[in-house]
Amino acid sequence: MDRLSTYQHTRPRMMVIPMEIYLLRHGIAEDRSATGRDADRRLTDEGRAKLRRVLERAHQAGVRPSLILSSPLRRALETAEIAAHELGYEGKIVRIPALTPDSSPQQVWDAIREHRSESAVLLAGHEPLFSSTVAYLLGSTREMVHFRKGALVRIDVESTGPTPAGILEWLLTAKLA
Question: Contact, 166 vs 139, CB < 8 A?
Fold first, then answer.
């Protein structure tokens, strides 16, 4: 068993964790789509390969989302599809506007709360939204994370009340995977 897996399986549980939240920033995307529309930008081959490395590592560490939510933008949807494949997720990928780049952390939290019965929710989306959302979920008013393309963050929440109170469990980038 590798170090990340060992940590996840041996660390003491001081609280019951009703939800694991995974934020997955889309992989490297083309600079310009064929249509010229930002929403149509696709992942590059390099972006797909780096995502697969991160997600293979996450799978080895036991990441198993019970639900995947995605921004409707093409690069995020492609990211969500790769995540579903690599993590063995067989459910439907749900597209939600709360994960578009111009959304707010509160809108993301509201969307998560709509799925409070899920044990592990993976969100596929964008910057600058995800850095702000990580800070918000951790109770900070300022961004504290450099959220690289293809990075995956796990935050556990004890409850899904109106204000989040998350615990940062880990951050994984392609460079570390």
Answer: yes
